[in-house]
Amino acid sequence: MSGGRSAPAHGADVIARTSAEVVGTSPVERTGADEAFEIEQELMTINLGPHHPATHGVLRLLVALEGEVVRDLKPIIGYVHTGIEKNCEEKSYWKAIPFVERMDYLSYFFNAQAFCGCVEKLLELDIPPRAKYLRVIHLELNRLHSHLVWLGTSALDLGAMSMFFYCFRDRDRILDIFEMSTGQRMHTRYFQVGGVIQDIPLGFERKLRAFLKEFPSRVDQYEALLTNNEIFLHRTKDIGIVPRERLLELGVTGPLLRAAGEPWDLRKVSPYLAYGDFDFKIPIGTVGDGWDRFIVRIQEMRESVKIIEQALDGLPEGPWIADDRKVVLPPRHELGTSMESLIHHFKLVTEGFRVPPGEVYYPIEAPRGELGCFIVADGSAKPARVHFREPSFVNLQALRDMCVGDYVADLIMNLAMLDPVLGGIDR
Amino acid sequence: MPDAAGLELIAAEINERHPGAILGTYYEHDQACLIAEPEKIREVLAWLRDTPGQEYTFLASVHGADYLPAVPRFGVHYELLNMARVERIRVRAAVHDPAAEGGPYPLGEEPLPEVPSITDEWPTANHQEREVYDMFGIVFRGHPDLRRILMPEDYVGWPQRRDFPIGGEPVIFTNNEREVPGWTQ
Fold first, then answer.
1. A394 in reach of chain B (CB within 8 A)
2. Whole-prediction pTM
3. Which residues in chain A have their CB less than 8 angstroms from residue B151's CB?
């Protein structure tokens, strides 16, 4: 270990280094401005990724190291940029849904909800209560799924191999449930503009309830496995602290911000869909270290289970998609008997529905933070601009503040607790 | 959200403080938007953040749009949020395209529109301004590290512009790699 890290009180030195000035473009120059540390040893710039299992995708990090201590870090992204936003401009609105689902591949229902909700706002279209509840059920199941993948892979990064298998076992049960209601395990295209494509099948509720009954005890087990694990505690406690004010400046949202003590959750503050009907809590942390980020997500899983149970209990009867024939496909059985339905069906499939000119920014609370969809409509059947404010993309900017001054091994932990999804970052 | 009348008040107050900063407003789908002069965007955002009673301190998103054939052609949107009141307001910098006059310019040599960068005051804008630059070719003056972020570093062209075709990009083989601009240096 180099002599640069002369351990002061941990919180104080973290705050001191986050206010460091950024000068120049090369990592070496920038760390030169960081006066919190005296550089006694030559910096070595190494390349981490893009093909590294601990980067959770194709994230490349240019890291300036002094011995084992990270002095600067620069993320380099774009390796899986596929031009989804540009492609959406060439698709009619309903054909863009499968595209946007594939951005953040762990939270596909959220992407679809951001897009469909945005288009519904542009159309001023209300969706039926049953559709809202079905959407909430699938969104929260998706949150469980996303957090399980995060928990499994993060624990794997820290050496807890069995967690990975346990989490993927439960994740697979969620995917089975998705398959039952939507016909697909991932990228389901279940959400439509106006509601959901079909009602849940017989037996869905029984299967889901069986899962919900068992899942909280599973979460308890996972929590017990890790929170009583000395290695895990050593790796996460007091590491990667960034003050709340700095996180807000960096635009960080979601569990990362909540772990630092800011109770900000869009489901609570601006209840979209039916979230206003449910009783749930917003878990927050106190210190904002890796352990807080872990425990906030664990608690969120419990709260999601509560939401799903309440949504199942209160699931209203009625249609699951809006009855607006200018936007929503007519029921299949009408096509044989009604000329008008046939015309609507033909127009919707060939041209798609037209959206009046306007622009809307529609944010929702995704597993990683605020997922906003911004659409400019020009009056035609295709959007003029689709932009997604991806929480992973914005949160990634906080990685430097989390890592500078700590060991390179902590970088892996910080990255795991940041939970980036590169498909979402690069779009 | 400020309502339509509140939006007009905000616009009038900013214009009083910084004459000519707000070019217009619009209010649709319960969302308020100010159209701002790009050169005064820093003042407008700082006013919205620092004035007592406004306090839009959280910058949720920065993104661009190409309104071709409208004039001014580009928009850079700043989605501001007041967390205490849960109110959002959008500021759109209406950016003229300097390549609209003169020209036609060869690919990659057209003059680019410029907007002052806000990265020093709003660190979250760093990556997002780079993305707008990457996709629309809008230069953020004063940005500490303005490089392409999603497209390859040696890419030529601004792919999210409306006049940039989909599928217009040649596939590189060994027989044509010398002709394809900028990719093989």
1. yes
2. 0.87
3. 78, 81
Interface test with A, best of B55, B62, B63, B92 (most A CBs within 10 A): B63
| Chain A, window 317-336: residues with a beta carbon less than 8 angstroms from a chain B beta carbon | none
- Which of B117, B165, B108 has its CA nearest to residue B137? B108
Q: What single DSSP character describes residue A336?
A: G
**φ and ψ of B181, to 5 deg:** -70, 130
ipTM metric: 0.89
| Chain A residues close to B63, C-beta within 8 Å | 374, 387, 389
What domains, with CATH codes, occur in chain A? 12-76 (no CATH), 92-322+354-425 (1.10.645.10)
Q: Does A22 touch chain B (CB under 8 A)?
A: yes
Q: Are A405 and A69 within 8 A, CB to CB?
A: yes
Could you identify the residue written with the tokens 């503040």?
A401
Chain A, residues 106-145, CB within 8 A of chain B, namely 121-122, 124
Is A383 buried (19+), middle (13-18) or exposed (0-12) by CB count in 10 A?
buried
Asked if A396's CB is within 8 angstroms of B162's CB, the reply is no
* Distant-in-sequence contacts of A45-51, Cβ < 8 A, 24+ apart: A48/A411, A50/A76, A50/A79
Question: Going along A269-357, which residue ranges are E strands?
Answer: none
CB A80 within 8 Å of CB A57:
yes
Indicate yes or no: CB of B61 within 8 angstroms of CB of A389: yes
Q: Encode burial over B123-146: b for 16+ CB neighbours within 10 A, e otherwise.
A: bbbbbbbbbbbbbbbbbbeebeeb
Smallest CA-to-CA distance from B94 within B36, B31, B51, B145 is with B36
H or E element: which one contains A69?
strand A69-76
| Fold exhibited by the domain B4-141 | Beta Polymerase; domain 2 (3.30.460)
Q: State the Cα–Cα distance between residues A69 and B73, nearest whole angstrom.
A: 47
By Cβ distance, the residue of B33, B144, B152 closest to A22 is B144
Spatial CA neighbour of A421 closest among A89, A91, A101: A101
Q: List per-residue pLDDT tens for chain B, 185 residues long.
A: 678 888 888 888 888 888 888 888 888 888 899 999 999 999 999 999 998 888 899 999 999 999 988 888 899 999 999 988 889 999 999 999 888 887 778 777 888 999 999 999 999 999 999 999 999 999 999 998 888 899 888 888 888 888 888 876 667 777 877 766 654 44
Look-up of token digits 């597993």: A367
Would you kindly state where each structural domain of chain B is located, as residue ranges?
4-141
Instruction: Measure A81 CA to nearest chain B CA, in Å.
Output: 6
